[in-house]
Amino acid sequence: MNNRKVIVLILFLSMGYASVAQGATPPPPMPPPPPGLPIDGGILLLFILALSFGIYKAYKITKKTT
User: Fold this and answer.
1) CA distance 59 to 65
2) What is the C-alpha separation between 29 and 12, in angstroms, rounded?
3) What span is annotated as the signal peptide, if there is one (predicted)?
């Protein structure tokens, strides 16, 4: 009877070790790479527009004060 309790106790304790030994889950998949968009596309056009807008505003302010 006492021997049976020891065997049952050992079985229950070893079940905990067996459940820990399952291993980790696999890592999640990597995200897709970002699209290859150009960084400098249209910078020259944007610069020309900004420069012309600045000249226009400066002309408008000087015309208003005179």
Assistant:
1) 10
2) 36
3) 1-23
